[in-house]
Amino acid sequence: VQLQASGGGLAQAGGSLRLSCAASGRTFSSYAMGWFRQAPGKEREFVAALNWDGTNTRYADSVKGRFTISRDNAENTVYLQMSSLKPEDTAVYYCAARFGQVVLATQTYEYTYWGQGTQVTVSS
After folding, report:
1. Which of 49, 70, 109, 122 could pair with 104 in a Cys bridge, judged by C-beta atoms 3.0 to 4.6 Å apart?
2. What pLDDT, in 10s, does the model give residues 29-42?
3. CA dihedral in degrees (120, 59, 49, 104; nearest 10)?
4. Beta carbons within 8 Å of 26's beta carbon, 6+ residues apart
5. Does residue 79 surpass a pLDDT of 90?
6. Contact predicate 28/50, CB 8 Å
7. How far apart are CA 86 and CA 66, in angstroms?
């Protein structure tokens, strides 16, 4: 599966952005999906994950209550709605896919496919 992330940009603290990740192929619903981010000089870190139909989700503590992950299997797309943005949310955001419908993986090695990343910059 190929992933294409979009929707990044510049936002002010307290603002919102919605990221999208479009997937190729006709088996999108066979994959659990995740979002990760990487700030300059830091390791890539888990942000959010959801199962094949979006009924189960998991979030990093740092974004819980502010970010929402969702998916539209008819459109082969996963979303990350980001609200109440903080300067520390500044990073390149990556979507990722792992085959298997259930597991909400939080480690980078657990995902097989990665998008190219989209930059999110939050100004104070």
Report:
1. 49
2. 999 999 999 999 99
3. 150
4. none
5. yes
6. no
7. 10
